[in-house]
From TrEMBL, chains A, B:
It comes from the Bacteria. Its cofactor is pyridoxal 5'-phosphate. This is DNA-binding transcriptional regulator, MocR family, contains an aminotransferase domain. Homodimer. Pfam families: Aminotran_1_2 (PF00155). Keywords: Aminotransferase, DNA-binding, Pyridoxal phosphate, Transferase.
Amino acid sequence: MNFESKFSVTVNRIKSNIIRELLKTATAEGIISFGGGIPDPETFPIKKLSEISNEVIMNEYKIALQYGSTEGDPELRKQYIRLLEKYEDITCLDEENLMITTGSQQALFIIGTVFLDEDSYCAVSKPIYLGAGSAFNQRNPNYISIPLEKDGMNLDILEKELKKLDEEGKIDKFKFVYTVSNFHNPAGITLTLEKRKRLIELAEKYDFIIIEDDPYGALRFEGEKMPSIFKLNKGERVILLNTFSKVLSPGLRIGVIVGNKELIKKMVLAKQGMDLCSSTLTQRITARFMEKYDLFEEIQPTIKLYKEKKDKFMESLEKYLGDLEEVDWVRPEGGLFSWITLPEGFDTMEMFEIAKEKKIIYIPGETFYVDEPERNTMRVSFCLPSFEDLEEGSKRLRATIEEYAKKKGLPLKIK
Amino acid sequence: MNFESKFSVTVNRIKSNIIRELLKTATAEGIISFGGGIPDPETFPIKKLSEISNEVIMNEYKIALQYGSTEGDPELRKQYIRLLEKYEDITCLDEENLMITTGSQQALFIIGTVFLDEDSYCAVSKPIYLGAGSAFNQRNPNYISIPLEKDGMNLDILEKELKKLDEEGKIDKFKFVYTVSNFHNPAGITLTLEKRKRLIELAEKYDFIIIEDDPYGALRFEGEKMPSIFKLNKGERVILLNTFSKVLSPGLRIGVIVGNKELIKKMVLAKQGMDLCSSTLTQRITARFMEKYDLFEEIQPTIKLYKEKKDKFMESLEKYLGDLEEVDWVRPEGGLFSWITLPEGFDTMEMFEIAKEKKIIYIPGETFYVDEPERNTMRVSFCLPSFEDLEEGSKRLRATIEEYAKKKGLPLKIK
């Protein structure tokens, strides 16, 4: 049978995940990878999780092995409210302000479904978190792509674009701004307090919603913790997304959406047709873990480890790339990523072949754009490689850049 | 903020789940419920699951607590292929013919996304499984609703409709027939071998796909096991959906799609944006359970229990409704449901208020239609109530019917 004619327009629009394809081709012995954005499995609290899962299955099977509500486990929502109170000073939430999702990816997909039609507009950062792109793309909206600066989205450009939409009479089709507020994936950047406040002002002026995605906020190594946009706006027009993937385990597939009750209600309706409910077993395990242990106390060793790796990585990049003109990188205060920019004319996707030969892997930046990409950028993660590999990998990166420059006849200026 | 203008056309189309709303209002003390379609939690193998989950977390945490592939756990796919070989005599499948989903609901949602646009057609049974309706509705397709008879879909009507579409030049917009082949939810009906074969013939003639949803097939109490449509067609144009919710535990949220590799590839692309992957923990637990135990041997006691309950229920219905003219019900050979039809003029949704007073709950049939509903039908499940409650509930049902008939001045003829 020829299936081509049977596929929907929507699915024919979906492109294969380039990161996945790239990583598949890069599996040679001895390779050092800055590619992954996944936590170190040695940081998972396996003994505690195993004990809790035993208790949950034996004593709470009537709930933990049964169908659950689409909104999510009430116990988990209760625990999460407690955590937001304690660590984010967000108060006055009740269970109806929260829903549980199958990982943050589903939260993004639900956001797309609930707000976007083909004639809708939304603003996203440039570069954008790939998962958000793939979730929103299924709705085929119009993107307004806003460049990231060292202190977050360029809000002057955002305001200009909003003004333009307003003048064109299309502002009612503008639904939301999507932002990763802390330690952005892929760019490692954090939105400053000043910009957070200004973003809220813009949202009020142009009447839009802010989607604040914060998977990395708990992984701050240094610098001052910032209030969430959600907190600053008292949750009025901000939807906060979070996940347990970076602070407990991705395999549980637990995400959280926090927002206005009316919005949560709509999102629950959307999720119902998507998967009825997330795993009641992993939800209850997470709830009991949070009840018994202080999630953020538990990850202090992880944060310490990541900070040391980040310091080592920054030091290595300085050592091997520091003398190059027009080469720069983000020095993150938390999270898993830095973002390297090479001189104009470099194409990191093309350069990837040389990198593979030199046994060093990064993610070419061009994968993180919903429109015209910048080709001289790359995402690099420091959380999985060993300290030695962070140094050796940086050295290989220098060699890769040099060989590519030579091959393409690009000037590589020394400071 | 007024959110109304921000919602998508898609989400504004989603109606709240009526079953959920009904069951919420029906929580009084002493109520007997034929409403649920959920397994008896006492049938969950908690000791075995707890042991396995312990082993999986302690020994396989690098996989079971980490992100996994969108296709699903290779170990689980391997085990499922083994099961299909052993119990369904389906051979020649490899891992690329399978993907794992977050419950069967996600499988249905993916099917909708991959095949349906707003100008697409698909045929579904009348009544339809509610979850399929809510998944497909998000795509807003054109439905061709085919009445169920005691031996399955009325294929004469299906053929007539297909012919009509063909004549109108729209047959290329016809994507699939969706059918629950064994012990239909809500109707309890099984598609006969003859009709299975004829459905395949029609699919070949009019070039469409068959979606065979089989969550209940393993729960056969009596009668002869039938080859799946997938098996009969060698999987060429049939996509088989299954789930562990009825044979192991719904809380794991594990469904399976089996089909042509080209189709699976597209479905994996769609799932990626939806939730990246299903819980790697519950997938690996399921895989190890299947490796260590024979899933179908394990559920024999459950099947025996359900059969006894079904027998008791059929006996009770005969006792309390058997003398009524124009009242009939489905005598299922497996699964969880029967379907009662009352005389013309009865409205089971309206009657629900009286039922609540008499402390008996069923699901009004009108919830199971994507177009014009029949109002004199109801879904009744026998798997959760005790033997005493199956009898007492049937008695209350009779009293409900009598009181409603009296109130509405409807004749209630005795045979």
